[in-house]
Amino acid sequence: MALQQGLQQRQSQNLAMTAELQESLKMLQLSSIDLADIINGELEKNPLLTTDDGESIEIGSSNKDTTTSDLTELGKDRDSFENESLDYQTNWDDVGKGGDHKFENNDFDFEDTIEGEEDLNQLILKQFHIDVADAQKRMIGLHLLDYLDPSGYFIGNLAEIAENLGCEEAEVEEVLLSLQKLEPTGIFSRSLEECLKIQLEEKDRLDPCMFALLQNLQLLGMRKLETLKEICGVDDEELQDMILEIKALNPKPALGFARKELTPGQPDIFVKKKDDGAYFVELNNAALPKLLVNKKYYMEISAQLKNKDEKQFVKANYHSANFLVKALDQRANTMVKTAAAIVKYQEEFFKFGIKYLKPLTLSAIAEEIGMHESTISRVTSNKFMVTPRGSFEMKYFFTSGVSNSGGEVASTSVKESIKEIITAEDHDKPLSDDAITAMLKKRGVNISRRTVMKYREALAIPSSYERKNSQMYRAG
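^ thats the sequence. predicted structure below, dont judge the formating
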């Protein structure tokens, strides 16, 4: 077969991941605080940017005010809005290669916009979502996460939270107790005593003597050991053993964990109620400086420049300023549209409380405003809304599923997997909870050993030691 050379035309389309596109995606996901730092930096180095009105003009802004949105406007101008949005899609293969408790006196990495490092919040949410399937309880749990102090203690007021969410205080406390069962052990405790109590319960060491000691920790701090011996009904040696056991516990469960601070100094969106009972969303213009391009100054200096390098410098700054203002305008537009769609979908929650919270997915909002799910995910990250029922991160309203490495996982399916693994084990060498945890991880279900133990006990399945010595399980 003869080889031949020839010319041919072929048409194809691709989207290059340019520096500007990366910067747009970054700004879409950044919180207002981080974005304000970037804007202030640009204002310092770009002479064509200003926050004063004067003779300046806004580049790329439309006549329509996009800082507020009535919920009835959604869907009317979907096509025109879609053309303005930062809805970038691409094939990534083509992209360039509780206080001080004591017993005694700017480099940008594009990958960061896709998936961040797991911190304490993420660890808690992963466990909580696997354990709790109810959308209302998830919403309460997400709200309680805002009241976790740097030491890992819960510092919120249950009555106030219940009133804001429109539910019973007992429901909030039930969710709080569920959060206290998560790792690290002792998290979400309301006091040092409760923190130590939870840790001792897990070790099966909360006997009446230890319980009495926990109720009188102030005496331990005052070194009134004789009084403690009498209260606990123990001798010197037993009391010293109990004290050593308590000192081995962790009084600050969150210590050693990274934790990203999400709550901003001021919100991004206000949700307000009209006189007729309807809701509307409004952009918080005070969260970011109003950025403008000084076109008059640009025209004046451009006419006087003769040096090539100077012309290049001014041109580059004008292009940069133009892009930045457009990107900020589109970011605000996208944020308002997304917030309006969320409020429209969850309107009954705002009117009647958490019992009326609906399951919601990113795809539902994306379809509502004609955008891609990835855009909705970015624009709802680290963005907060002040509503008549309190302050919420926009992501809090997406409560329909449990996200895990293997996809959507429910607690019932995890329990079934544990039961299946134990049924198939070698009865002479039963699997430990650690081994079951490792096997679940291979199936794409990342849960802690403690959660495995909790689910195993809920299924009334004995421990590996008990199963090994149980005739029933050996016969099975």
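Residues 53-64, 75-117, 401-409 have pLDDT under 50 and may be disordered.
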